[in-house]
Amino acid sequence: MPTLEQDKEDKTELRDRIASSQIWRSIFRHGFDDTQRNRVLQMTAGFLLHTRPVKVWTHGIRLRYTWGAGGLTFLMFVVACITGVVLMFYYRPVPEYAYADMKYLKFDIPFGMFMRNMHRWSAHAMVLLVLVHMLRVFLTGSYKKPREFNWVIGVCLLTLTLLLSFTGYLLPWDQLSIWAVTVGTNMARATPFLGHEGPFSEFLPFISPRYDARSLLLGGTIVAQGTLLRFYVLHCIVLPIFAIWFVMVHFYRIRKDGGISGPNKALEPPLVARPVPAGQIAPESSPPKASGALPENQPGQENQSARKSEGESE
Amino acid sequence: MTASSTPKADAGDRAALPAKVFAWPGLLRIESLVALAAIIILCVWSITIDAPLEEPANPAITPNPAKAPWYFLGLQELLVYFDPWIAGVVIPGLCIVGLMAIPYLDVNLKGNGYYTFKRRAFAISTFLFGFLGLWIIPIVIGVFFRGPGWNLFWPWEHWDIHKVVAQNNVNLGNLIGIKNYLAEAVLGIVFLSAWYVVPPLVLWRKKYAESPTLKAMGLTRFVITAFLFQSMMLVPLKIFARLVLHVKYFLVLPWFNV
Ligand code: HEM
Fold it and tell me: A142 to chain B, minimum CA–CA distance in Å?
């Protein structure tokens, strides 16, 4: 390792000794050599780093492009998972204890209230950020080919985020939570066919206040202990598993779709090869007559040259 | 490694592709810094502001107003203008399905991977209208301007629980003097069908010949887009009809009302 040998300080010698010890080398195999090959090996050898690409688009790491919103959404999810596990140590999902455990967390558990606050605020931040992330993905047109399916996965994640937040809202078992959940789930009674007050439910004889879409959510006809247990299980097990699964697929797809989207004019249709409809901005250099002569929508030779000139013009 | 080969790029385009850098430190450093900043903010926030906890749950005492969590207040706001099965089931369902359908309906290849308005003016204005106008603004109204009885209050105004707002809403049929149920139902059906069919049909007939976009879309995509678009615009239409013309329902049927 030439770079280390050049350095003569004690500290560096210690670092050198550690970095060349058997233990260190068994964990971090590839040392610090600043060669292209070694840097690739560093990234691919460990589990955590290998989940990231070795190289990324320069435009993709600009905050001005992504706003960091997707990454922050994920961070908020991780914070909520970690603090949520801590809360689970103290929380019992039955009406007799749930509210008391909130008080217990606040007054008796060291850092209990801090954990609850972190959990609550990270969850709110996650909802906010996922909306911001969706907005930026839309504004940059990043859902377009080849990322269509990742957008669909994103919409599933948005839904899951809202459901996670909503199921968690009930757990403190205070006035705020039961009435918010009452209002939220009341709409389910009006589900067409499946809700007992919904249109067409009269055509399904087995739909009643006790057995319909709403009672499936509530585990009964009102928000009560059945609801609390149901929401607890959904909140702590079912929905997180789905969310983690979809996030993994989401991240995997980002890489398989060619990394973060970016201005790649080569993928765009030739502007000049097509008659420009009124109202659209025509490139200065294209006389409408001449462009009309070229075939439309055909990625042929002519369009290749058209692409080039378009790429240069911007 | 995978990300370094873009499937779409053939040899001729290579030169046009943007540059790449090593993820470490290029990406990971900025990621860590942003994450650190976010965690610090979150910690400070959590130390200074406590999560709310009200009185213990009591099914016998209904708070007035009973508000859903803020991210659902847009839907709760729609309950003012629509029956629960539309506001609570149909509209959220259409939102999810419609959002998922966007990539398959938008045939405009321009504006992929950078910010632009003029190259996708319709897509962006439609999305922003729905996102800000029909999602964010109703949330703001629900959070800050709704009080007891779901009446409108200024945020600084005292919540008068006895505030009464006169509501004499009439159905579309009554509005133009029709008293007969059957005639009213027919009118409603005609009105709603016209809403969904006429504007798209006119657009398609008049613009198809000269519009490369419509040709690229094809009929199926166009019909789905038009349906989703008209459904979305039905929301502000209904809000307008309610607030200005005091219309309760466009369509009254024995099974449901719209
Ligand atoms: C739990 C929720 C979500 C998480 C954790 C998440 C995370 C991420 C991250 C980290 C990225 C990388 C780029 C960036 O940070 O902007 C990304 C990209 C992307 N996300 Fe999400 N996302 C979520 C929800 C969504 C939603 C709701 C949508 C759309 C409806 C969406 C669609 C996309 C698409 C299409 C990309 C690729 C963007 C590009 O290549 O420029 N995601 N996501």
Answer: 5
pLDDT of amino acid B45: 97
A115-154 per-position pLDDT tens digit: 999 999 999 999 999 999 999 999 999 999 899 999 999 9
Residue pair B71/B139 in contact by the 8 Å Cβ criterion: yes
- Give the global pTM: 0.85
Residues of A in contact with B24 (CB under 8 A): 39, 42-43, 49
- Of A126, A148, A168, the domain-final residue: A168
Residues spanned by the domain of A16? 8-45
Band of pLDDT at residue A276, cut at 50, 70 and 90: very low
Residue A119 within any structural domain of the chain: yes
Q: What pLDDT is recorded for position A137?
A: 97
Amino acid identity of B238?
K
Q: How many CB pairs under 8 A join A and B?
A: 284
Question: 3-class SS at A8?
Answer: coil
**pLDDT attached to residue B156:** 87
Question: Is residue A215, in this structure, part of any structural domain at all?
Answer: no
- A154 CA from centroid of ligand 1 (Å): 6
Residue written as token pair 């609801």: A227
Separation CA A168–CA A160 (nearest Å)? 12
CA–CA gap between residue A183 and residue A181 (Å, rounded): 5
Note the pLDDT of residue A295: 36
Number of domains, chain A: 2
Instruction: Return the CATH number at A107.
Output: 1.20.810.10
**Percent over 70 (pLDDT), chain A:** 80
Measured between alpha carbons, how far is A207 from B185 in angstroms, rounded to an integer?
Answer: 27
pLDDT at B173 over 60: yes
Q: Which residues of B touch A255 (CB under 8 A)?
A: 2-3
Atom of ligand 1 nearest to the CA of A243: 1
Residue A31 near residue A38, CB atoms below 8 Å: yes
Of A63, A151, A297, the CB nearest to B103: A151
Mutate to test the pocket of ligand 1, among A63, A128, A130, A133 (most ligand atoms within 8 A of CB): A133
Inside any domain, residue A311: no
Residues of chain A with pLDDT > 90, as a percent, come to 51
